[in-house]
Specification:
Blueprint: H1 3-19, H2 26-33, H3 37-43, H4 47-71, H5 77-93, H6 101-108, H7 115-137, H8 143-163, H9 169-184
Length: about 190
């Protein structure tokens, strides 16, 4: 990936997360990235294409970070499902936390036919499937049901932290997750 394309993508990511997607125009992105519209459109034919790429990269970066955390963990499968919320708490507490792109994008593009909403919805489902796999590996019988419950906790806590940093939402989501996980094991 070219350095300039990466700079545009990084700038757009920061602006979309801090100012909103619809509130951030192409002029602002190119000014902040120190480039031109012609260069932006060389790499991204439309703003929608840029938004989609920002969402893909943000989700990929988060998933890679989470995979790395689990790869260095020595926990048993039955403990990894709870450990997910430890990692999420670490992520939410980090100074670089700006929220989850798919949550913000789905709110700004509520039309289910919109490609941005569709990708956001798919990313939410993919994360729920990731949780379901952790639950299945932990021998949870209703892995899909638990995954839905935990993804609701995750998305709600992330949304609360996006609205007010240090709200404590992730701490309480972690406690609720433990109750749900323990209940699902019975």
């Amino acid at each position: 990936m070219s350095v300039l394309r990466e700079r545009i993508l990084s700038t757009a990511t920061d602006l979309f997360q801090t100012r909103g997607i619809n509130s951030t125009g192409v002029d602002t992105i190119v000014a902040e990235a120190g480039t031109t519209k012609m260069t932006l459109y060389k790499y991204f034919r439309t703003k929608e294409e840029l938004i989609l790429e920002v969402l893909r990269k943000s989700q990929s970066d988060f998933q890679s970070w989470l995979d790395l955390k689990f790869s260095t963990s020595n926990q048993k499968p039955t403990e990894k499902i709870q450990q997910l919320f430890d990692f999420i708490e670490e992520w939410v507490s980090s100074p670089s936390f700006l929220g989850m792109g798919f949550i913000k994008a789905s709110a700004e593009f509520p039309d289910e036919q919109n490609p941005i909403h569709q990708l956001s919805s798919q990313q939410s489902r993919d994360f729920r499937l990731y949780i379901a796999k952790l639950a299945a590996d932990a021998s949870i019988q209703d892995a899909d049901g638990l995954a839905l419950q935990l993804s609701l906790l995750f998305e709600g806590a992330v949304q609360a932290e996006q609205m007010k940093r240090g709200s404590g939402a992730i701490k309480y989501a972690k406690q609720a997750a433990k109750i749900l996980i323990d209940g699902a094991r019975k």
